[in-house]
Amino acid sequence: MDTRDLYQGLEDIYLPIALAVIAIFWLVVAYAVVRHRRRDDRLPEQRAESKLEYVYAGLLVVIAAVLVALTFHTEDKIDGRQSAARTLRVDVIAAQWRWTFRYPDQGVTVRSRGTPTLVVPTGTRIDFTGTSRDVIHAFFIPERRFKMQLFQGDTSRWDLEWPTPTEQDGLAGECTFYCGLYHARMRFLVRAVAPDRFRAWAASR
Hints:
10 strands; 35% helix
């Protein structure tokens, strides 16, 4: 499913709040350094906590509660989204230092030591299964902000959707776990095309 817009909405909320909290923290530190810097050998005056400290602590609790609530609300939206009626199965096999994409229902296998292209139809839920032949790898698509770890002897499952076609060159994908000498070669492309173009592509393979 396409969750990029939902995660982007959370980031648009989290980032300004985080920057504001950091700014307030450093302003308080700077004020304390300037206001209470040591001038002589006298110890600084000890005072009980002020009401302002309670207000600040309460504000942080409220902010944390709001962020937690928004996060769970977004997760509920993701879990409750309706998947596309059409589905496609794709097996992802990672190995040093290449990717293999298998389409079991179409009898198609894309294998390359260069930069293979994962072709998918738009408006279709892509049901992925992924595994590794050796060390830990990661199936990462930066544009979609999606990453899945792949382990030897284990099967990872996830689903994604592309509502609209990608550019002709496709979206860049890569492995983000250092997996040996030629780790930088573990790249791939994802190209989303209309369903009829996907069927024609699969038939040609």
